[in-house]
């Protein structure tokens, strides 16, 4: 009846109608509620309706198109279909956030989706479709778009000032070259929507219940309106064409959870295509981003160049979406912990053999993928949805493990009463490719304990007091979540230094000193809090090169001294809070998304611990923030400030999704003349790995244990926002104040956050090593497994130490193993990441190489296939298909980036250039490694070892 | 996947799930807007969505059911289907109202739908489904249900006190014997919903966007809730079973404009049927009212008896839906006028031959059917929808006719300047089966005019002054609707008595007296307003038997005297208004639906005309009401009161849909002990034909020209509500105050209503004749056609007088021909109605007979088939299929009603018992009548005659 077969018509404005539904995998409702369509009183949204109604609509007319992003919510529904276009965009399990997720999580969730789509449907997505995230990271552009083989990245949300300028200058479509190191080899053609991801005006919404005028083309009825509606369409098309290069424009025909009865949209679009093309002024067609970008490419245009990223995002004056960088710090911390655990667990799963009974990381993989969603780890979901994400992570973790509450110092195995003659066996696993020494802290009841290494030798250990705050928190939370308080209460942290080979483990035995035949001599114990009190009322803290000087009764940090590097700096550390604006001025309060401070107030700290370890030249600051009081009706956002007298010249650096560091200049944007209306919120950036500043002589770096927001609001000063508790909703849809509480029975109080950050000052130019190497250690802490033994039962029956790699081999200092995973096929997925950018470090910003034979010494590699980043196609195939875009002004062309050479199948050496991540599928000649044998040498163990989180 | 095949299970509570959508053919949106789904900002409703989504849902599972009422809105959509159950209910073009429509309109619209369904789908509906109308008429029960062959009538809205008692006594299901005359031969099994026509609780709505909990039966997702939902279902079923006889209960699964994505409902009902039947406590099944009532019938139960009707309806205290009896009196008047016109026009169409070019009544038939809808002629639609209905009537009328504004005295042909030598030819058609004399009034410019009959003889005529009010209204409305004021202004009504044979016409020629050779003698003219002024300041009005006595300066009616019948009664006539309650007490204002008076106030009348014609023993009162002032912010409802000193003993009588008269007793209901909280509104009843009261000596009757509300609030007094203008919405959905205005350019004022009612006092027992015979004349006035002639052109070329019937024959006084219509098949539909109830009139409440041969003297009848009322099946077939229900208490059984015998094909005489309506399809041996020949004897006429409305 309607002619919907239009293709592209040269010489006309071509309106690419791209039907889509934006189906968040959780936001106001949980992902399952969205799927089945329950809880509709919160939001009318049912993905099952979308899917059910889509199929007949697409079958009814083969010209129709539709694109679908969120694989996590489809439950394999599209298996019924052979519509490739459905799957051409993103293809990850979710549309991940770009501020809060770590790049490893972004890769993992994308890989999970991409490989699923490839295996199920043989489809390779070619379009990035980040229409909703609240700002866009460099890593998204060059890693998660260019390196997965996308030809186009499309999104909607950018700073309102930036957008205005781009509209004015027709620069909404750009070539984005986001990596300094990889340059044009990892650039991506990028389109920014002129407005949002919805139809071009209020007049083109066709959901059941939408109020846009339908095209009434039945002359037998009243209100025939074809001419008016065609005019509406043509006007909107011309308006958009006027701000767009080439004569192709794209209309995103849909929005959140639309197409619940897909027919309603297609019926109207059918009519528009039919009548608009009859009219002939413009050409309308069913299209996809892929068809759109191919048409753009065919136009052979040159495009403006864009570097760096699109942070921070403000949708209007005083509305900077920089609060969510910190919102829900507990969830963000949980996600980071699980991310690290997942990385390590996959290694163990591989060593053990994926098909054997025991560990399975699949459920955790799914949960972790889901929680990368831009309303999940971002902290911008409703409370019940945040709870749902945490539950999913917990289930995923529990499927393999027990003892999930160790992270708040509750761990029954380690609290066993050793006086009864039992020993505690601690197996310490190191998921890094480097040999590593690190402090292990375990809560214990007994004072008289000794630690022996795997050879039976007593090693140095310390007893540290448990903070009263931690103890009460521990009791409170175990009552809240376990429904009971614990019957034994640990008194101390037992701390000792463990040394573990790369991809390997070592074993330590903790037993009663008496039982072990030792007096309670506390031999070699030293408590860090026993410090030197010098003249001038200062306290000096630090057992090694690094000394921190504190002064006065309140023990205020004064100075940072490293005797080895000769750094000696004035340094203060303090806490302040911002009052969250209540919106009384202009209805824009501070909220889950938006940071809008209204005044700065100091906090006198209590319950903070600063640790300085022997052999570690950084300070570890453990903070306890909360419950944040809101009895005064005022929301508060707690920030730590590190203040030096460095002349940082408005400049500081923050990482992009945990990877590249990007220069930030206060009150300044490279792409436009910033009109400053929020001098604090407008200078906040996401921090996943760290933040630093420098002057002529030194660099002050802070690394974090989870994603937070950070900035440098004054020269010489860095700050991190640690926690937020607010009383108003910020009017971006979530309709809840960000007010996290914990309830014990009927009594609720604000959530308390315990976290850490790490601080170090280096001579200028020498800081990258710590940021990169220690950053990797923060991300991948030791993994601990506990068991009990009577006598020497365990030690005698188990291998005490092990490395998966050749014992003579470690990975180069500038390379990290970020994925080692056995695939369902039995093949192995390996990802190696160069950790340094070009020019970042004199020694380490160089080509590096990894010897695969030594990484897998006990197996024989039969085949190595280099893949794209998401491992859904061979890298060579991807490179061959890639569209090459022209950039305006030849002077902006960079020399081609250096990259590692293809892997010689004989040598099996992988070269990695700065910032390069290489992904391989490795096949082995069949034989099993001995890891699981090592752990399970006998079958009559009373208790299976489980790996837990330190 | 789900087992939906359940049938009835004996011994269990059977929950009949009846999926349905209640799709008003106009209410808040126009019928077309509802169909295509435009104007969704007013109401989310799109019937196309319902229809489009229904088919795949029904095809997907043959166990699913659905019922659909409104044929007017389906546009033949179901032609695609073979699901009989879709069409088993109502089957008319709309779900007609039961208060405002005349029974002839109800029959016509039902016939239109029933014959369409029969022809297109070969389906005969068996269920009446009046779920939404606001009260239920006796005529609906015995005529539009029993006589069309329904086995069950189901509805929802009855008085809240009545419902409470019925719930308590398990008497929601009854045998309704609504006709005194036809008794058990026209009774109908009737079901009243325990609540409304929606699902049993808020928990069972499944439209896209509804918030009822869906059945979450996927164990892989969170929130699995099958046990809870099954419990919800079982609880609701048991609750309803507890108030219902037999173990069958019906759930109306739907409501207004639901099933816009039918799948969403069926998916949930599939699950309920599956899991509830697995549970086994009750039995759930897809069903239809037909399956339901067959199950009830099989139970062989005896049922309570109900007589009379279900008026008035109150849904709660102080909320009597008796305002709508009068709401939109102009629309109600227009509908009545069009109804009469349609009846006459079909006669002409038949005489002329339907297949010839010229008149077509099809469009008017459709419009008239549509406007019987319970939010159309009821006056309870939004203003723009009322406008749409009027437009449709106007288009329907215009398709055959011109000059639609004669009813406000604007008619160019009759206002031709006769001084130019032309004459005006008036052809007067009488659609009644009786010979008839009646006064014709035509506006004229000239004073010097004469009227000649068809033989050229000058007959008596009168010039009556046009009221100033009428003139200014005429000018105002012609400017409003034609965009210009008229260029000639009539000065007088020219009145003369026309005498016309049954189903025939006569011709009158109006010409200038001068031209016609007469002096301006005004011979025989008499103006009714020139009256006798007697002593005592009284004025006596009346040229014949009837005299009205007026007294005082204000000419107040004092006395009614009929010299022939010796009736001599004190009689007052006055106007009052009720203040419409503003809802400030309890949020229940007076509005389009609800009449809620708050105080009674007198009105001094101006601009009223009372006419008494020679030879007519009744008074004709023409009222002009409006604009009703609301500047004081108070809505007003204008009422006329006729006050006598009769001792009426709380009792009065109103017709049911223009047919049977039902006894009404003030502040009393037969079926329950009425708790009186609205002593005025709660005593209002719909009046379509008339209202009367009586005492020992006399009967005072009032007949109306359209449907209105009426009552007797005090003994000896009758009142009619003539017009309403209100300032508040009454909270029943329409969301507009009933405030009709007319705008001339930018100036708007309240709508003015001009109407008539007729009053007569008879000796007791002798009043029915006038009510019935003159009532028929009011309904079917003369139809006038105008043309001009030069000299005697027309008269010489046309037949001047004609009767379709045998010239020696007229119908009996107690029989009316209510349908004479050529069907598409060429056959003829004939309906004859006995006009009297049993015991209504000594002479006329008797068996009567009609000789068909004399009705069709010029044709030869080949076959007569008696049909059911809606002519979609043979009467004999219907009688054979009819279910016979048992009534509680044998003493309530009546003797079988008397009915006419089957028609002897040789004699062709139709017998009619009191209140009997008999419907026939008549076939003729092919030959054409001469009517069209008579009118169009020559083909070179300058102007085609058109029939217009006096």
Would you give an account of this structure?
The structure is a homodimer of 950-residue chains. With 950 residues, the first copy, chain A, is α+β, with helices and mostly antiparallel strands. Chain A starts with 13 loop residues before the first strand and ends with a strand. In chain A, strands 19, 20, 21, 22, 23, 24, 27, 30, 33 and 34 form a 10-stranded antiparallel beta sheet that branches. In chain A, strands 12, 14, 15, 18, 38, 39 and 47 form a 7-stranded antiparallel beta sheet that branches. A 7-stranded antiparallel beta sheet of chain A has the order 25-26-37-32-31-28-29. In chain A, strand 20 and strand 21 form a beta hairpin. The first copy, chain A, has 18 helices and 47 strands. Chains A and B meet through helix 1, helix 2 and helix 8 of A and helix 1, helix 2 and helix 8 of B. Chains A, B: This is Alpha-mannosidase.
